[in-house]
Design a protein that fits this description.
This protein is an alpha/beta fold. The chain is built from 15 helices and 17 strands. It folds into 2 domains: 239 residues, Acetylglutamate kinase-like (Carbamate kinase); 170 residues, VC0802-like (2-Layer Sandwich). The protein has an 8-stranded mixed beta sheet with strand order 3-4-2-1-7-9-10-8, sandwiched between helices. Strands 11, 12, 13, 14, 15, 16 and 17 form a 7-stranded antiparallel beta sheet that branches. The structure holds aspartic acid (ASP) and magnesium ion.
């Protein structure tokens, strides 16, 4: 007999749409049921039902502004969405009543927390985490009961018992050593009984037990953390598309699933706007040597995308994907006197950071007479104001001539490991755009050698995206083994 912990171990994470309706959840139940044959040790991590986390947080913010009249409606929506699934998937009446009652208690907790916020007139990050955690605390109860109704022995587990984090509410960071110890202590006995732990994604707790969250979309990260500390052989992320696509299929109709991506490529894709995976998920999984796969709950036969280690022979210089970050503005700070002004870049980015805006792309002209970077169009006014205040003296003295922004632009990023070392690919990228008369406003090369980003006018974005996507097909069939 192999040692218990040598048996194949799989962590499967299901996103909000995979549990958002009775149909979706029954599909999820079936996937878990089928996977048990190959994976004697199976751990399920789930998100809240789709839309629930937003509903909880919106209600909390409104409550803090004193608007409590909407709570009744929110409570109702939470109750009806969860109860409808319980009614469909849990046949045993007593069990169904029990689950609905447990969810009812969590809804009451939600209501109490929101009313407390209304009284205090504020929603602290700690209180927001307490509210946000309720979505997953409801979904695990529902999913584990639905699994049991289908004959899969399951047990809901709150990750506050497993994942130990710091006190950075809303974006907590795990302590992997403490998490490993707790996770094994809590999950091993459940696994040893042949049960499937159904764990809340998104949550953790401080060492004293105060609930934290890992950041929006953090359930992927939860799965990565649990996979790393157990350790599991594999982590599978179940979502509602066939893995990672070569482009957004809504903009590029012939976009296709990318069968294999390296960890660096997926990190770059996640950074440049592809909604694939919570970017922090990747780190613990690579460090622990755990396999990662992204697959589709609604098309489970499809192999999806497999993540593979970065290695030289895998970096043949193929273009793998093209992403677009829309609704951006390019801000330029320019002036001939800038050459002599110390610390312009540091002060400029300090001013941008003070508005809470993150900068997806920076380009620098060699002359040092201008600095140019992108910000979301919605933050444009605020950022320009902050910059004008920070450089008021330089503007008055004409060391800086002007600070200005373009109209809306789109950042297109071409991703593929080894691409930049492979001769001719960058050339093909630019000629593809030139042939279609697309004007490239700015260029930035990812430091990681995995991507090239181009800024184009918003009105050229779809044309450019299509042209770049075509290169994936032509370049790769020429160069691939
Ligand atoms: N439910 C959380 C969110 O919506 C976590 C997740 O879905 O991954 O952000
Ligand atoms: Mg979600």
């Amino acid at each position: 007999m192999p040692e218990q912990n040598k048996l194949p171990t799989l962590v499967m994470k299901f996103g909000g749409t995979s549990v958002g309706t009775a149909e979706a959840m029954s599909q999820t139940v079936q996937i878990v049921q089928n996977s048990r044959q190959d994976w004697p040790r199976l751990i399920v991590v789930t998100s809240a039902l789709s839309g629930v986390t937003n509903l909880l947080l919106d209600s909390a913010h409104q409550s803090a502004r004193g608007q409590v009249h909407q709570l009744y409606e929110a409570e109702n929506r939470l109750r009806t969405t969860h109860d409808a699934i319980a009614d469909r998937l849990i046949q045993d009446l007593a069990r169904s009543v029990q689950v609905k009652q447990e969810i009812g208690h969590l809804i009451a907790e939600f209501s109490n927390l929101c009313r407390a916020m209304a009284v205090l007139g504020e929603a602290t990050p700690r209180a927001l985490d307490a509210v946000a955690s309720l979505g997953e605390r409801m979904s695990v109860r529902l999913l584990s009961a639905a699994l049991e109704a289908a004959g899969v022995p399951a047990q809901s587990v709150e990750a506050t018992q497993l994942i130990v984090t710091d006190r950075v509410f809303q974006n907590a960071h795990p302590d992997l050593k403490a998490t490993q110890e707790r996770t094994r202590r809590v999950l091993e006995p459940i696994l040893a009984q042949g049960r499937v732990p159904v764990v809340t994604g998104f949550l953790g707790a401080t060492p004293e037990g105060i609930t934290t969250t890992l950041g929006r979309g953090g359930s992927d990260y939860s799965a990565g953390i649990l996979g790393a500390v157990l350790p599991a052989d594999e982590v599978w992320i179940w979502t509602d598309v066939d893995g990672v696509m070569s482009a957004d299929p809504r903009a590029v109709p012939n976009a296709a699933t990318i069968p294999e991506l390296t960890y660096r490529e997926i990190a770059e894709l996640a950074y440049y706007g592809a909604k694939v995976l919570h970017p922090k998920t990747i780190r613990p999984v690579i460090d622990a040597g755990v396999g990662l796969r992204i697959c589709n709950t609604f098309n489970p036969q499809h192999p999806g995308t497999r993540l593979v280690a970065d290695s030289a022979e895998r970096s043949r210089g193929e273009i793998k994907a093209v992403t677009a970050i829309r609704n951006q503005r390019l801000i330029t700070i320019e002036g001939r006197g800038m050459l002599g002004v110390p610390g312009v870049a540091a002060r400029a980015f300090g001013a941008v950071a003070s508005t809470g805006t993150s900068v997806p792309l920076i380009t620098q002209a060699s002359s040092e007479q201008s600095i140019c970077f992108a910000v979301p169009a919605s933050s444009n006014g605020e950022v320009i104001q902050a910059l004008e205040a920070a450089f008021a003296i330089e503007l008055a003295q004409h060391d800086i001539d002007r600070i200005w922004a373009t109209e809306d632009v789109t950042i297109l990023t071409v991703v593929g490991a080894g691409m930049i070392r492979t001769p001719g690919i960058a050339g093909r990228v630019f000629s593809a755009l030139g042939q279609r008369n697309v004007n490239v406003i700015a260029i930035a090369q990812g430091s990681s050698e995995v991507s090239i980003s181009l800024v184009v006018d918003a009105s050229d974005a779809d044309l450019a995206l299509g042209a770049l996507h075509e290169l994936i097909v032509t370049t790769n069939t020429g160069g691939a083994q």
